[in-house]
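User: Hello! I'm new to structural biology and keep hearing that structure can be predicted from sequence alone. Could you demonstrate with Integral membrane protein? Please show me the input and the output so I can see what each looks like.

Assistant: Of course. The first part below is the input, the amino acid sequence of Integral membrane protein. The second part is the output, the predicted structure written as tokens.
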Amino acid sequence: MSRTAVDPPATVPRPPVLGPRTSWFLLAFGVWSWVIWITFVKNLWGNGSGLAFDDAGEPTAYFWVHLLLAVASFLLGTAVGLVGLRGVRAWRAVRRAAAGGPGAAEVSGNGAEADGGRS
């Protein structure tokens, strides 16, 4: 018994893999990461307690480790936020297509915009 997969027409999108709640959560996490880690680096840079900078004003190992932690967390948070943004945009495209609203023809078969969600 042979089964052949038939892709739906381009104007009928399949639901995105991420749900809308998950997409919004990931987007909020990305925004939170921007706020928290930028604030952390500002506070680290202005640290006068002697932990981040020695008496000569040179950065200490504490400074470099925490700066690396902040940059890595900021980049990961940005990536997570972008995944959430793509999910939110995909769900909006699905809703537009279901309602027959503007942009419904721009929806591809996987629930993302025709340009791959890059605009």
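User: So the tokens describe the shape?

Assistant: Right, they're a compact way of writing down the 3D structure. Reading them back into a model, for example: Confidence is low (pLDDT under 50) at residues 107-119.
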